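pinning this so it doesn't scroll away 📌
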Amino acid sequence: MLRQMVADCLARELEEVRAESRLISDLGADSLDIVDLIFTMEKRFGVRLREDDLPVVSRLETAGPDGGPAEFLSAQAVARLVPWLPELGVQTDRSRVRPTEVLPLITVEALWRLLEHKRSSLP
């Protein structure tokens, strides 16, 4: 069902959408497509996804010490992302993860992990 939803939202054939498919590099999604996917997931699966649930879409603690944008994510931000995006766990140096490196790592399976987490926490 999630694969079909992703295929529909991204105007792709179902056969093109696999668990390991990266939304951006494999399926051609952009940031607006990802927001659309999130809204569609909420509606179709009856969950409410908040900014805290979606650290990739929200601000990732990217402010530097001077208040301007930081070059790398904080260790806390990376730690929050790893359960959702285990691909970050293979980074050799987690202290040097750039915010721009995270969004391209989102896969269909990562969306499924997020969805299952939210559904399991429903009353």
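📌 and the second one:
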Amino acid sequence: MGKPALGARAHVPSLTIARADACAIPFVMATARTAGFEPFVGRWNEAQHRAALADGRHVYFIGRDGTEPIGFVIVRDRGSPERVTLIKRMAVCRPGLGHGRALLAQVVDVMFKETNAWRVWLGVFPENGRARRAYEAVGFMAEGVARGSAFFGGVHRDELVMALLRPEWEEKRPRP
């Protein structure tokens, strides 16, 4: 089976997610360093990932299509008392196949099903149209620009804040 045409979306029926531990750090680091991701995806070193996994605030998820890892999501403040959870970072190995959208949708489902989260939010660089479209497809709505909120690549950059609230997620869920 060949590669899908540009712009085509692969159906990902076998996509699964699982919480990850320190064994996933090499995969996460390699995926974040995919060529072309430099302007959009943050890059922690191994020590930063280990610290995040140990701090009790971060949870890592790895998405798999069958047995192949296809991407990761780092969540911060899962189950926080404020009921607000941040999608800190995510990336997929091969963008444009629908994997990011499917991966994010599953992680969001876990956040709302397994915690009492009221709000799941993220920041995206405004010029990252591909990511924004994926987030919107999952149900995230743009709320505004946080000026200079990301210190990225040695400079302060604006972030578009997007969020999905529990009632919006519940409304989009298929009814049994």
